[in-house]
Design a protein that fits this description.
It is a single chain. With 302 residues, the chain is α/β, with parallel strands linked by helices. It is 45% helix and 16% strand. The protein has a single domain, classed as TIM Barrel. The model has no long low-confidence stretch (mean pLDDT 95). The protein has an eight-stranded parallel beta barrel with strand order 1-2-3-4-5-6-7-9, surrounded by four helices. The longest helix is centred in the middle third of the chain and has 17 residues.
Length: 302
């Protein structure tokens, strides 16, 4: 199982990161052997939040050959042509591969901020997805219900730009993913190892039905919040008083995450590896550089 890292976009106890902090964080992740660098996407969140795509672009020079990923970005909120242009630019500038993870998002606040009805997110997303997929491949778009103008982008990167879907396990979405997606982003804090394994099994069935080989279809478990500490009190504080209220979750729903002792974190990651996860993207809740080191130490023991 490969290990990737999220950029520390959210302020969860540390000071808001500077440009230099983000460069150091990215170089550290690269030096430690993290394989993917990911940025989530919100306009409005419960804590101060840096823009994901902008921040990801700002650290390209420090990322080396790490895969850059949006995990996920919101083509309905941002507009699919804008998202496609962002992804093709990232792919043109980066050394490593680029994965464009797309989803409708689950935050009503993001939709309210841009004046788009939250109830229309899935209908709009299905059309936006087709638009993004066409544009990043250099193909013209076709008029639809929500995005009616024809467009074609230039330049188009020579390397294939992968378009992954995000899904918490809806069978309808897993089936749609099997038809056209290049990979799957599962949600770490919304899916236990067992839930991931069950969803992956259903996805594999849909891939078979679509005539595609499950064995070469990649996935990554994203937003895997991390905090390694031998202090039980500190671990409970970070999980129960910092993370759970921010996410709107009962702390018990987050017990499967790698928050706690090195042994607990190792067991938490091992459970995903045993369930078949191809990659896990760790997000240090605070003390990012130290936690990147601890996270890789824990992962190396698997």
């Amino acid at each position: 199982m490969r290990i990737g890292a999220h950029l520390p976009l959210a302020v969860l106890g540390d000071a808001r990161p500077t440009s230099e902090d983000l460069q150091v964080y990215t170089r550290t992740a690269n030096d430690l052997g993290y394989t993917m660098l990911a940025a989530n996407d919100h306009l409005i969140w419960g804590k101060p939040w840096l823009d994901g795509p902008t921040t990801l672009a700002s650290v390209i020079s420090a990322a080396g050959d790490m895969t850059l990923a949006t995990s996920i970005t919101l083509p309905v909120v941002r507009h699919p042509v804008v998202v496609a242009k962002m992804l093709t630019t990232l792919a043109s500038l980066s050394v490593g591969r680029v994965v464009g993870g797309l989803g409708p998002g689950s935050s009503r606040a993001d939709y309210e901020a841009v004046g788009i009805p939250f109830e229309e997110r899935w209908a709009r997303f299905d059309e936006a997805l087709r638009t993004v997929r066409a544009l990043v491949r250099g193909e013209p778009t076709s008029p639809g219900t929500y995005y009616g103008n024809e467009a074609r982008l230039n330049p188009i990167p020579a390397r294939h730009l992968e378009i992954w879907f995000a899904s918490w396990g809806s069978d309808r979405r897993l089936a749609a993913m099997a038809e056209v997606a290049d990979g799957w982003f599962a949600s770490g804090y919304n899916a236990t190892p067992h839930q991931y394994e069950e969803s992956r099994a259903r996805l594999d069935g849909h891939l078979h039905s679509a005539g595609r080989a499950p064995g070469v279809f990649p996935d990554a478990v994203a937003t895997m919040w991390l905090f390694v500490t031998e202090s039980r009190r500190e671990a409970e504080h970070v999980r129960d008083d910092v993370l759970a209220p921010t996410l709107g979750r009962d702390p018990a729903q987050l017990a499967h995450l790698p928050i706690g002792s090195a042994q607990h974190c190792s067991e938490a990651l091992a459970a995903y590896a045993a369930a078949g996860a191809r990659e896990v993207l760790l997000w240090p809740i605070r003390d990012g550089l130290h936690q990147l080191e601890r996270g890789m130490q824990v992962a190396s023991s698997l």
